[in-house]
């Protein structure tokens, strides 16, 4: 056994099962390629240099997909809505860019609409956005 305060090699740590929290990124044996899920179902991607990164260095994947599609970073006032309601379905055709106010309005109105879960309500709302 190691003496108190003595530094252990990675190999020794693996053998005795010491927590790998101090080894970050791809060097950590528990690294899963920089992709993880939140408890609410969103996909996070490791992007430590992104302007809207979390403290741990992750960005929500749907934001990255939309940013790549429009060719710029999203602002804090812009939200992404998943048309089919599945939070890890981040295909461009399933994402709708809207302001925070529009998204809140859509979410509040959609809860009373039986077609909301099937995406029919969102398509009607999307047409209204593009007409105005």
Sequence-ordered SSE layout with sheet pairings:
Layout: H1 10-16, E1 35-37, E2 43-46, E3 58-60, H2 61-70, E4 78-82, E5 95-99, H3 100-110, H4 120-131
Antiparallel strand pairs: 1-2, 2-3, 4-5
Describe this structure in words.
With 132 residues, the chain is an alpha+beta fold. The chain has a domain at 61-131. The protein is built from four helices and five strands; from the N terminus they run H-E-E-E-H-E-E-H-H. It has helices spanning 10-16, 61-70, 100-110, 120-131, and strands at 35-37, 43-46, 58-60, 78-82, 95-99. It has a three-stranded antiparallel β-sheet. A two-stranded antiparallel ribbon has the order 4-5. A hairpin with a 5-residue loop joins strand 1 (35-37) and strand 2 (43-46). The chain is elongated, with a radius of gyration of 21 Å. 10% of the residues are buried.
Average pLDDT rating: 78
Shape: elongated
Task: Determine the number of helices (DSSP H or I, runs of at least 4 residues).
Answer: 4
Estimated helix fraction: 25-40%
Order of helices and strands: HEEEHEEHH
In terms of DSSP E residues, the strand content is 15-25%
Termini Cα gap: 71 Å
What integer value in Å does the Rg equal?
A: 21 Å
Q: What class would the helix/strand composition place it in? A: alpha+beta
In what order do the strands lie side by side in the largest sheet?
1-2-3
Low-confidence stretches: 117-132
Overall strand count: 5
Largest sheet: 3 strands, antiparallel
Short overview:
The protein has 132 residues and is an alpha+beta fold. It has four helices and five strands, in the order H-E-E-E-H-E-E-H-H.
């Amino acid at each position: 056994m190691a003496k108190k305060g003595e530094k252990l090699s990675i190999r020794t740590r693996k053998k005795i099962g010491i927590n790998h929290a101090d080894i970050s990124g791809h060097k950590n044996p528990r690294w899963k390629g920089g992709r993880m899920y939140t408890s609410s179902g969103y996909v996070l991607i490791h992007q430590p240099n992104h302007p809207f990164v979390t403290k741990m260095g992750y960005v929500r994947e749907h934001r990255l997909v939309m940013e790549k599609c429009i060719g710029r970073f999203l602002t804090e006032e812009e939200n992404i809505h998943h048309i089919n309601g599945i939070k890890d379905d981040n295909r461009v055709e399933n994402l709708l860019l809207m302001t925070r106010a529009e998204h809140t309005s859509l979410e509040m109105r959609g809860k009373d609409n039986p077609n909301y879960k099937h995406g029919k309500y969102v398509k009607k709302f999307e047409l209204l956005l593009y007409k105005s």
